[in-house]
Design brief:
This protein is α/β, with parallel strands linked by helices. It is built from 12 helices and 15 strands. The protein has a 5-stranded antiparallel beta sheet. The chain has a 5-stranded parallel beta sheet with strand order 8-7-6-9-10, sandwiched between helices. The longest helix has 17 residues, at 214-230.
Length: 343
């Protein structure tokens, strides 16, 4: 399976891709990778997905499908989330920190050395200390790139917005007073900018929570970005850490169970597609929500290591009843978790 996960790692660099897994039925455990509408890998030669590829290559949303008595989890992968912040003033500092906590790759642009250094100290993954135009020309964006314009003046806002509107993106928001925003938009329209694209800018930026302080403004901005992000029906993908561990796994030496949340109802703690690795010694990488539910999943995964004839297990977890309440499962949702030995 190592080559299969290597292909997943490559596919997440920007192509539209999905991983299909039979989670229940005679073909349980079979997997396939689809990239840009083509089947590029099947875990079983001439297997289930090779025979039925036409039934799945057009799927664009994360969901559970059924075919010939088999339940199939379609995990639409989302490329890594990127947050590009134009400006490194007071508001930018908490945006950087919240962005990192929300697992975005954070890039900050500012042409002032002291402010750029502040962004580095705040933990930004990349800081470009140069003029906004040339820095934005270097940025390779895609449909998972979120732009936040929080510069120190409207002329910088205009430069940033003009460059960003020509790029692929998921979101662009711009801070500023109504007068400042109006002036920037009018100037771009006078230069022949696309009216629809200009009106699509999120401004005033952020959710309306009556934010006043830099931290509150940052919360409003990140809340809006998360809202936009979660309107897309994609899975959680494979984190860099999980992919790294899967690529290190070798048959007989680093056997590991991959746990994936494949369905979710109610207020369960983690989204569909969330993944966790469990090793025979009890070590884990990632989390599917913690608490008693995760502990139960780990116990079943450890038992799966000892089952030579069985490599998969589909587990329902109900966090709604009195028993769940007594065990501290306060979320009140129902999930299904698929376990599969990957080595």
């Amino acid at each position: 399976m190592k080559d299969f996960y290597e292909l997943i790692k490559e596919s997440e660099k920007g192509a539209f891709s999905s991983v299909l897994t039979v989670i229940e039925g005679d073909q349980a455990g079979e997997k396939a990778l689809i990239v840009n509408g083509e089947l590029v890998a099947d875990s079983t030669e001439n297997g289930f997905f090779t025979r039925h590829q036409k039934a799945f290559i057009q799927e664009t949303e994360t969901a559970i499908l059924e075919l010939e008595g088999n339940r199939i989890f379609c995990d639409v992968l989302s490329p890594p989330k990127k947050l590009v912040i134009c400006g490194a003033g007071h508001v930018s500092m908490p945006i950087i920190k919240f962005g990192i906590m929300a697992e975005f790759s954070v890039t900050v642009i500012d042409d002032r050395v002291t402010f750029a250094d502040n962004a580095r100290k705040a933990g930004a993954h990349q800081v470009l200390c140069k003029d906004f135009k040339s820095a934005l020309e270097e940025i390779e964006s895609d449909q998972n790139t979120y732009f936040v314009i929080v510069t120190r003046g409207h002329r910088y806002d205009r430069t940033c917005l003009e460059e960003i509107l020509e790029k692929p993106k998921a979101y662009v928001g711009m801070i500023g007073s109504k007068m400042r925003v109006k002036k920037v938009k009018e100037e771009l329209l006078e230069k022949g900018g696309n009216p629809g694209a200009i009106e699509g800018v999120y401004t005033p930026i952020g959710l309306d929570i009556k934010a006043e302080t830099p931290v509150e403004i940052a919360i409003a901005i990140m809340g809006e970005i998360i809202l936009v992000k979660n309107q897309k029906k994609t899975g959680m993908g494979y984190s860099k850490e999980i992919i790294k561990e899967l690529l290190l796994s070798q048959p007989g030496s680093r056997e590991v169970v991959l746990a994936t949340v494949v369905s979710r109802k109610g207020s369960a703690p983690r989204e569909v597609g969330t993944k966790m690795l469990i090793y025979p010694d009890g070590r884990i990488v990632g989390t599917i929500g913690g608490g008693c539910a995760e502990s139960d999943i780990m116990s079943k995964a450890l038992r799966l290591f000892n089952e030579k004839s069985n490599n998969t297990l589909l587990i329902p977890v109900d966090m709604t009843g009195q028993e769940a309440e007594e065990e501290g499962m306060v979320c009140g949702g129902v999930i299904e978790v698929f376990l599969e030995k990957t080595a």
